[in-house]
Design a protein that fits this description.
Elements lengths: L2 H15 L3 H9 L8 H18 L5 H13 L3 H17 L3 H17 L3 H17 L3 H17 L3 H17 L3 H15 L4 H17 L3 H8 L2 H6 L3 H16 L3 H15 L12
Length: 280
C-alpha cells in the first residue's frame, strides 16, 4: 500500500468527520479503489457512504449491507461498527426509527468494546435522535449530555458545539424554549470560529427559538442574516425555508407561509423526506 494513498484516506476520513463532504469526495476521486487491499477498500467505501449521507444521496442501502456482511465475515469489528453506524443513520433518515435504534445500539456496543471513545459519542448522538423520535425523551437527553461530556474530556470542541445544538433542538421541540436558548447562548463565544455552514445552522436554530418565544421580528432578522442568504445551500437552505414558513405562520401570514414551506419541501424531499435536516 502506497503511503500517499494511506495519507489520502486518513485525510478524507477526517474531512467527513468534520462534515466537509465535498473535500473528502475530491480526495476519493484521486484514488483507484482497485489498487486497495481489503482493509483500505473497506475504509474507502465507509468514507464514500458517509459522503453520500452528508450530501443527501441515500441510494446506498444494498451496497452498505453487502459491506456489513463482508466486515462481519472478516471480523473487522471497528469497521463493522462504523458500517452499522452509517446504516442506523440511513434508517433514521428514512424514518425507520425502531430498527435504527437497534442498529445504532449495536454499533455503540462494538465501539465500546474497542474503547473507541470518539465513535462511541457519534453513535450515542445518532441514537439520541431516534430515541427522541420514538418518545424516549429522557434517554435522548441523557445520551446527548454524555456525548457532550465525552467530547469536552477529549478536547473535541467542534463536537461539543454540534451535540449541544442537538440538545437545544430537542429541548426546543419539547417546548422548553428558555432552556434551549440558554444552551445556545453558552455556545456563542465559540461559534465565530466555526465554518460558515455551522454558523448558518446555529443562526437558524436561534432564529426559530426566538420565533416560538414570541419574537418573530427578531427571528426574521436572524434567519435573514446575509451569511445565510448568501452561503446557505443543501440542508441549511431547506431548513431556512421551513423555518421561514413557520415564522410567517406564527405571524398569521398564511400565503407567505405556504409558499415558503412548499419551497422547503422541494429542497428537503431531495435529501431527507422522512428525516430531520436540522439534527446533526
Amino acid at each position: 500500500m502506497d503511503y500517499t494513498v494511506k495519507s489520502k484516506l486518513e485525510l478524507a476520513n477526517n474531512f467527513v468527520k468534520e462534515k466537509r463532504a465535498e473535500e473528502a469526495q475530491l480526495i476519493l476521486k484521486s484514488i483507484d479503489i482497485n489498487t486497495l487491499d481489503f482493509d483500505h477498500r473497506a475504509l474507502y467505501l465507509l468514507i464514500h457512504f458517509e459522503i453520500k449521507l452528508l450530501i443527501g444521496n441515500y441510494d446506498i442501502k444494498g451496497d452498505l449491507l453487502n459491506l456489513i456482511e463482508l466486515l462481519k465475515e472478516n471480523n473487522s469489528v471497528v469497521k463493522f461498527a462504523k458500517a452499522k453506524y452509517l446504516f442506523g443513520w440511513l434508517l433514521s433518515i428514512q424514518g425507520n426509527h425502531i430498527e435504527a435504534r437497534e442498529v445504532l445500539f449495536e454499533s455503540y456496543l462494538n465501539f465500546k468494546r474497542h474503547d473507541d471513545i470518539p465513535n462511541q459519542s457519534r453513535a450515542l448522538n445518532r441514537l439520541a435522535y431516534v430515541q427522541f423520535q420514538i418518545g424516549a425523551f429522557d434517554d435522548a437527553i441523557n445520551n446527548l449530555n454524555q456525548c457532550i461530556a465525552i467530547n469536552k474530556e477529549i478536547g473535541r470542541i467542534d463536537n461539543v458545539l454540534t451535540y449541544t445544538r442537538n440538545l437545544a433542538l430537542i429541548q426546543f421541540r419539547m417546548g422548553n424554549y428558555s432552556h434551549a436558548d440558554v444552551l445556545l447562548k453558552e455556545l456563542e463565544p465559540s461559534v465565530e470560529k466555526e465554518s460558515d455552514n455551522a454558523k448558518c445552522h446555529h443562526l437558524l436554530i436561534v432564529g426559530i427559538i426566538n420565533a416560538f418565544k414570541g419574537f418573530t421580528n427578531k427571528a426574521l432578522a436572524i434567519i435573514n442574516d446575509p451569511l445565510i442568504i448568501e452561503t446557505a445551500f443543501g440542508r441549511e437552505k431547506a431548513i431556512y425555508y421551513e423555518y421561514l414558513g413557520l415564522i410567517y405562520n406564527l405571524e398569521g401570514k398564511f400565503e407567505k407561509a405556504i409558499e415558503a414551506l412548499k419551497t422547503g419541501i422541494r429542497f428537503s424531499s431531495k435529501m431527507a423526506p422522512e428525516g430531520d435536516l436540522a439534527y446533526r
